[in-house]
From TrEMBL:
Chain intervals with Low complexity compositional bias: 1-13
Superkingdom field: Eukaryota
Source organism per UniProt: Homo sapiens
InterPro entries noted in UniProt: eIF-2B_epsilon_N, eIF2B_epsilon, Nucleotide-diphossugar_trans, Trimer_LpxA-like_sf
Region (Disordered): 1-40
Name of the protein described by the UniProt record: Eukaryotic translation initiation factor 2B subunit epsilon
Bias type Gly residues, positions: 22-33
Amino acid sequence: MAAPVVAPPGVVVSRANKRSGAGPGGSGGGGARGAEEEPPPPLQAVLVADSFDRRFFPISKDQPRVLLPLANVALIDYTLEFLTATGVQETFVFCCWKAAQIKEHLLKSKWCRPTSLNVVRIITSELYRSLGDVLRDVDAKALVRSDFLLVYGDVISNINITRALEEHRLRRKLEKNVSVMTMIFKESSPSHPTRCHEDNVVVAVDSTTNRVLHFQKTQGLRRFAFPLSLFQGSSDGVEVRYDLLDCHISICSPQVAQLFTDNFDYQTRDDFVRGLLVNEEILGNQIHMHVTAKEYGARVSNLHMYSAVCADVIRRWVYPLTPEANFTDSTTQSCTHSRHNIYRGPEVSLGHGSILEENVLLGSGTVIGSNCFITNSVIGPGCHIGEHR
């Protein structure tokens, strides 16, 4: 059964070409250089609006994970804002579980307005069971024409991927399209709150080229094993890193979707990475990495990460994605920001003697009774908390 493709009314596909010279890595200058080099094609993204797991059940039984509110904003809105800010001009949103709810949310949002800089196209199917199924559908429909970003709909990030994208394109140009993927990582100590055990990885990388040589999840492992060939085959040195947080943001070449089609045992991105690293000499494909130190990127993959990322948003580590920024242009999500990270929405009532200590977000229309003490909390819109006796 063919999966329907939905675009907002009034959107013309040729719109995206208006900004083709202004995207990441684009050349805005004219003259001789403009005559020699063609501007890069419009940047596209594939957003997977399904986790294909039950980690948030029973919460996500009636509401898809990407619509769960984080600091009173749906997760998918953070992801789309990140993609738009980084220069993406066309995003394909793939939905399976509760697809009708996601579609309704997006069609009512600013992302599907004719004035949106990022054209959002919604693709739904009940047949998707994994990331692999999504990318095989991308290949079958020939949706991507050049390098694209691959993300899940629960990624929260303010990373500017311009430099990583330029490096990726330059590698492919110089090495005849050998590199097919660049994974984005953030430097993070093993004890950092946004590191969760099930997502920890150890990566061996070429010190000079940032080519990934070995990639291994560490959950349940007390020791790591590396092939001896890793250290014998590289003349430039090898770094073994355990100080990285996987942002789950990948810059992919169109070959990635084709490789998923050719290998039906690839169901996740990790399957793909391991498969390519094991068969690198046979397939001739390489994977690289880009590491950021000061920017923010994380995936809300479980309740631990939900709590940690929500706290980071309230504490403004994901600036400019802060509660008072109201990047969704919603009147119900507007709020004011004051000292100690206190955010108050419109029509909030605070009872006599109540104290908001620090890192508190009150949604619109919320009523707090008298003598209450609130700290490090997010309270949704329209909530009522009685007085403390």
